[in-house]
Amino acid sequence: MKRITVLVAAAVSLLAGTAPAGAQPLGADSALDRFHHQRLDWKACGDKELDAAGAQCADVTVPLSYAEPRGRTISVAISRLKATNSARRRGIMLSNPGGPGGSGLGMMLAVKQRMTADVVSRYDLIGMDPRGVGRSTPVDCEWPVGTALRSSGADRAAFDRTVRFQADLARRCAATEGALLPHITTRNTARDMDVVRAALGESKASYFGWSYGTYLGSVYTQMFPHRSDRVVLDSAVDSKRYGPRMFQDMGEPNEAGLDDWAKWAAARDAEYHFGTTARQVRAFVEDLVRRAARQPIRVGEHQVDQHALPLMLFGPLADSRHNALLASAVRTFADAADGKPVRPGPELERDLRFLLNPEPATQNSAQSAILCGDVAFPRAPEWYWRNIQRSRASQPVYGSFANGIAPCAFWAPPVEEPTTVRNSVPALIVQATGDTRTAYASGVDLHRAMTGSRLVTLQDVRIHAVFGNYPNICVENTVNTYLRDGALPRADLTCRDD
């Protein structure tokens, strides 16, 4: 309700030369004129779902380095679902699905399903593959695995193997994509977003982001506060936690999520045979991880060891609607460990193949490229080992992952300092208390840092990414009202599961 006051204050701040720290200088546009005024060639996306929805796609030319805008250029792919009522159209809504490293061209197809007709009538919904991802000059470090995410294992020998594994991934990236890597950063993606805004002829851009997309969106508000319109940040990352702390924050909520799932599975012991109490089910899972440490579990063509198994359980744990999917995966791994012939279901096969045997189109070295390009991680392996050891008692399944070493420990230093988000740009922050990927406290902290924001809490639900993903009338009404009218709630709001 204080939107007008906040905007006036922001305008005064900009005119006085006191824009938020990290904001782009107001005179920086002149060197980018040729990018801001480029003409886009809209065409069919070549994607079944986007084309069926009537979307169009275009490639936007941006500088590889914004420090040298007259140097090499790259292209960024965007999609557009046009506003359904040109007379009521407000502008564009940029978006990002998270990751980092997620392809966003088709993201708004899902989000649109939870938007009311009067919201859909007002915005051109813009999907985007961020630089380094998908169709946007993709990073491919020629890794033998799909992602660097791994648990560090049960003992020092396993940890030392993980150190060597991560160092090798970093070496491969430096060898194959060394010239590109310094420019694959969140700040540059935010700059690309602003080029997209200008190329589409808009003075401002609204934004919707999930997960890492909330970090990107909040960085955009810090760098371009006067160009930010209506902003929704769903399952939020606070800028002060982005990096190693963001991963450490995952340990506790994933253990809590495992406890929550264990209660569900215990009530279905007749089907899954893990145990009749939550404690027995948890003990079953912990023992399964220990068995993978003693002997990798063969599932189909895949060998699942102590480094991979916790990650295979990590995915479905993020959504309580996937309880049965997680139980089926645990049953499959347990049967395989017992020597029984098993065939993984299609979802498990897809996840195994991505983690262990990726196709060129599914490899995700861009995730590490963005993280490591944004933030300097501690370099000493002992720092990670000490944190892992401290976490083992309270986080027996996920502590070795959440505190583990990453390729970033062996990466070249970032070319820019990371962005600290602290501003009064109006925004709506949505956060579930049971989120296993972006801890609830992270959303609370971002809310405090963005003083013009309101926080919508989804209470006692284990879900990551709410609006457009997990149906909830309270959240949907609040988000749609804000996007339609620009009216934030009068105060922070708590929603309950429907």
TrEMBL record:
The keyword Hydrolase applies. Residues 1-23 form the signal peptide. InterPro entries: AB_hydrolase_1 (IPR000073), AB_hydrolase_fold (IPR029058), Pept_S33_TAP-like_C (IPR013595), Serine_prot/Carboxylest_S33 (IPR051601). Residues 401-495 form the Peptidase S33 tripeptidyl aminopeptidase-like C-terminal domain. Keywords: Hydrolase, Signal. GO terms for molecular function: hydrolase activity. Pfam families: Abhydrolase_1, Abhydrolase_4. Residues 96-266 form the AB hydrolase-1 domain. The keyword Hydrolase applies. Belongs to the peptidase S33 family. PANTHER family: 2-SUCCINYL-6-HYDROXY-2,4-CYCLOHEXADIENE-1-CARBOXYLATE SYNTHASE, TRIPEPTIDYL AMINOPEPTIDASE. This is Alpha/beta fold hydrolase. It comes from Allokutzneria oryzae. The lineage of its organism: Bacteria, Bacillati, Actinomycetota, Actinomycetes, Pseudonocardiales.
